[in-house]
Amino acid sequence: MGNGAQGMDCRHFIDGQYIDLGASPTFDNINPATEQVIGRIAEGGKAEVDLAVAAAKRAFNNGWKQSKLSERAAILRKIGDIILHRKDELAMLETMDTGKPLWLSTNIDMVRSAGSYHFYANFISTMGTDAYPMEQGAMNFVVRRPLGVVGMINPWNLPLLLLSAKLAPALAMGNTVVLKPARWTPMTATLLGEICKEAGLPDGVINIVNGAGRSVGEAMAEHPDIRAIAFTGETSTGKSIMKAGAASLKRLSFELGGKNPNIIFADCDLDEVVDTSLRSSFINQGAVCLCGSRIYVQRPIYEQFLERFAERTKQQIVGDPLQPNTNIGALISKQHYERVLEYIELAKQEGGQVIAGGGPARVSDKGYYVEPTIITSLTQDCRVIGEEIFGPVVTVQPFDTEEEVIGYANDTHYGLSASVWTKDSSRAFRVAHAIEAGLTWVNTWFLRDPRTPYGGEKMSGIGRQGGMFSLDFYSEVSTICIKY
Ligand code: NAD
């Protein structure tokens, strides 16, 4: 990324104003593709969280909770429009923060982020409510009120996109928000402050506090005036947030880790499977929670799949995120890069055979690049099969029967997503239904109507997002029963 792209300093955004960095503590923001410092980030703590919550509480009580639905829909629509209008600038910042290819930031992260605001603007504009008449001469109505101040704690892999999936329904329901971007990726979230202000969002409705999980995140989880926390991140962090939020009995939405099976039966369309498996394995450097990192292939086509998949994997271009032909960019940080390489070494110690990739990618003498890596010959009990790596590393194992592969798929404490490839529709349904995952795809991947529930089973999460499911989370749902 040597073309002189500019980063920015990331300040807190509280009560409609950016807080000057002044003499407050900061830390450096590093571009993982170049290892260059691209700005300073304000290091917040409990004091800033307290200020942000107080501002959010005032904004809630001073008008936002009574705001008209049409007013909120118009603001959401405008936020989506501004994101699309500033798409190229925002995508560049997202790429500098994350190391992901610019085409991906532009076409997926920014487009889908804007889509969340547009979707909820339309959704609330047409939504009704449930009503149940009773024979005793009574009518029950289900009504929704906003919760008040809600907190959002976000990961680094899809910074603006995952944040928008939370923020849009929370604002749609009339809540005010304190949000914390991931420490590694604060730039697009920080700009959201000015974007929301330009869209007409009143001061204090959205507040952004930058900093570390252990200080800002924990202070949010403990804060008695934050009614709910929507968190996306690692399962272990979710457990800490749950503990910290217990005293104030916080409502929680958790989108956590995954180790998703990609199940390929012999009667699949192999061309399509190879194409999609490349994406579901390595897109965003393998750091999408929905990536299919455990590939199971039915024995009659195992060798054929492996040969074609390995050949295509070796052709993937790892390189400068700004180049349009780059498939795989840099990993988020030195620490994560080392962790992913350690897993590759562990796979070898566990008896795995590396049939593509297997080490650092030589792009330049700077940056945290790892080759897309395929590992075979591991058994189900290996750590590399069981633990989330969140990098461009997949395992491939053969299987014989449907029962056997369902057993493998469910043999994990995670349960986020799965994909099944077969032309037999009865089997597709049987297998999809038997898999313990919040979302199972058949003959596709990464496709979902935004009205459907999204979330994980087992250690992959608590609750569901999407459509009405998000609106339920961000509101008090209550019943009014009228006797007539
Ligand atoms: P992480 O858990 O390390 O961090 C996520 C956020 O939590 C960051 O903002 C961090 O600063 C904050 N945090 C850290 N410790 C905290 C604490 N004690 N209290 C409060 N906040 C704290 O996760 P990450 O490395 O940023 O993201 C990768 C993880 O996210 C992977 O496990 C991935 O599977 C998961 N993820 C899940 C989904 C999903 O939809 N299920 C989507 C994307 C990512």
From TrEMBL:
Q: Does the keyword NAD apply?
A: yes
**Phylogenetic classification of the source organism:** Bacteria, Bacillati, Bacillota, Bacilli, Bacillales
Q: Which family does it belong to?
A: Belongs to the aldehyde dehydrogenase family.
User: In the UniProt record, does the keyword Cell membrane occur?
Assistant: no
Q: What is this protein called?
A: Aldehyde dehydrogenase
> Which keywords does UniProt give here?
NAD, Oxidoreductase
Q: Which residues form the active site?
A: E255
Aldehyde dehydrogenase domain span: 24-480
Q: Which SUPFAM superfamilies match?
A: ALDH-like
Stored PANTHER family: 2-AMINOMUCONIC SEMIALDEHYDE DEHYDROGENASE
Supply the source organism for this entry.
Cohnella soli
CDD domains associated with the record: ALDH_F8_HMSADH
- Write one Pfam family the protein is assigned to: Aldedh
